[in-house]
Write a structure and sequence with these properties.
The chain is of the alpha+beta class. 28% of the residues lie in helices and 22% in strands. A five-stranded antiparallel sheet has the order 1-4-5-3-2. Helix 4 (156-175) packs antiparallel against helix 5. The longest helix is centred in the middle third of the chain and has 20 residues, at 156-175. The protein is elongated. The N and C termini lie far apart (94 Å). InterPro entries: GNK2 (IPR002902), GNK2_sf (IPR038408).
């Protein structure tokens, strides 16, 4: 099997397994990880000490889980470690905390000695590196995931247009928001709705976030009824079911209709002046 075929199979398999979530594991559904062994560290090294400091900071109960994003740095080059986490924007602070805590422990199982690591879960992402990763657009680590059901041929063009318009609207909203997150719904058929979600790490500029999301959206497999594309700095996903917590998201309301023109009242003749005996007095009503 070729490396490309293996990669596609892995992405497809990961997509399927993400739905087989046990009650005990519902806050940290593993998706994928990237940790190339081109740069490694040894046990009891300065890098490991700094890494443990960063991970302890990120998983601390004092971390701002309500924002869904945090970063930390420890040490000096060449052993400096910079880390961050990003939780899905519709999750509660407690669910975010549990996912990050699990990720911190899980990373040593999946990437026990690598300096550059990204671990993806359905609910959060954990990333750290010996290089600067803050406020820096990174479109590496691209990963496809999709539903195995195809869109019917007679609805394909309509569906692709709907996905493109919905996701691009969400991307613009996310880029302009402080949390760099947006979710939208749109009617596909009378009985089915399209649900879309996009998110960047909030340390990105508006333009970098929008650029990242546009690249991610362009990679979506829109001939499938559900799919996602994940990169280091952003991710996008659509489905024909509500895969996020709708009650935790404020969906933008459509703009109000323009005000109706107000007709000017008819002009009437001025009232006649009143006359009093003995003197003349004028008044206007």
């Amino acid at each position: 099997m070729s490396s490309r075929a293996s990669f596609i199979f892995l992405c497809f398999f990961s997509f399927l397994t993400c739905f087989k979530v046990s009650a005990q594991n519902q806050d940290h559904t593993y998706l994928y990880h990237i940790c190339p062994n081109t740069t490694t560290y040894s046990g009891n090294s300065t890098y490991l000490t700094n890494l443990r400091t960063v991970l302890a900071s990120l998983s601390s109960r004092n971390s701002p889980y309500s924002t869904g994003f945090q970063n930390a740095t420890a040490g000096k080059a060449p052993d400096r470690v910079t880390g961050l986490f990003l939780c899905r924007g519709d999750l509660s602070p407690e669910v975010c905390r549990r996912c990050v805590t699990f990720a911190v422990n899980d990373t040593f199982n999946r990437c026990p000695k690598e300096r550059v690591v990204v671990v993806y879960y359905d609910e959060c992402m954990l990333r750290y590196s010996n290089e600067s990763i803050l406020s820096t657009l990174s479109t590496g680590g691209g990963m496809y995931m999709w539903n195995n059901q195809n869109v019917t041929s007679n609805q394909l063009d309509q569906f692709k247009d709907l996905v493109a318009s919905t996701m691009n609207q969400a991307a613009t909203e996310a880029a302009n928001s402080p949390r760099k997150f947006s979710a939208r719904t749109a009617n596909f058929t009378r009985l089915r709705s399209l649900y879309g979600l996009v998110q960047c790490t909030p340390d990105l500029t508006r333009q970098d976030c929008l650029s990242c999301l546009q690249q991610s959206i362009n990679q979506l497999p829109t001939d499938k009824i559900g799919g996602r594309f994940i990169m280091h700095s952003c991710n996008s996903r659509y489905e024909l079911y509500a895969f996020y917590n709708e009650s935790a998201i404020t969906i933008p309301s459509p703009p109000p209709p323009p005000p109706r023109p107000v007709s000017a009242p008819p002009v009437s003749a001025p009232p006649r002046p009143a006359m009093l005996i003995g003197k003349v007095s004028f008044f206007f009503v």
